[in-house]
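Sequence in, structure out.
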Amino acid sequence: MIDNVSGVREAAESGDLAFGNIDSWVIWNLTGGTDGGVHVTDPTNASRTMLMNLATLDWDDEILDTMGVPRAMLPEIQSSSMEYAKAKGGLDGIPVAGILGDQQAAVFGQTCFSVGEAKNTYGTGNFLLLNTGTEPVQSKNGLLTTVGYKIGEQDAVYCLEGAIAVTGSLVQWLRDNIGLFQSAPEIEDLAKTVEDNGGAYFVPAFSGLFAPYWRSDARGAIVGLTRYVNKGHLARAVLEATAFQTKEVVDAMNADSGVELESLKVDGGMVQNDLLMQFQADILDVPVIRPTVAETTSLGAAYAAGLAVGFWGEIEDLRANWGKDHEWTPRMDADRRDREYRMWKKAVTRTFDWVESEEHAHA
């Protein structure tokens, strides 16, 4: 719009046009909009624009210049937990006091406040974030460095993030494209009809592979098929793919951070699947913990706001508020775990180099 719509650049440079992520828009409206609304964001949302400097937590002039984005239009980057302004209108007088990006809010809602604590959100795709402390850790293993949260005047806390493109959406694919069952939860019953995956592995590289491979030339593959494999084995292979991909990201995080994962807190739609959660604990060889409140993103934002207004006194009070619903502990013996993971890695290599050139690629 800046480049192609007349008048937009002028309005942006003069400060008459505001630009921000959805958090900025919501707060601006909550706090009065054109009648004195505040134009703010926090480092977690600002970092997602690629315009923020991770070290200074301010907009990066060099990047703004390169991208042609006028600084005047951008929101002020504040902390994730502080009182920005009071609401007007229907919520008149109520302080607006917490801003966190989606995945970072889940980290906060899962109370991953110590270095080495991690959460994994199981949705359409997976997002695994590991707290690395107050210094950003640059990844050598295909992960993203991101801001986890910044509370008041305290130093920002950073995370390593691994994104997995296809997890819950693979269950949907088996339901909608192949028609193996009517509703997603049925996959667990189907997977329970067999003892193991029957030697079948499903690598869902539908749009390439994300972390830690970053291979856009990869495409999905089901390998290890024999006459013995049935739909139960396929269902199990689909669930196991989520756990295997998570382990790959955890391995990369352990290598980058030098911190060994001690437990994994989980949230999102797929955490109701006991078979998957048990297999996740088995493959990672650490406990997998599901919280009482599965909507950890909203909880994290509420925690940040509650801290800012003194509803909670300090971060440790949030740990006390957080509740555990269920914990899965590893039961698989080491030899089998190593073999299963080795076979998965082998399966992944079979997906490489499938797309030969861009003109033949279909999204």
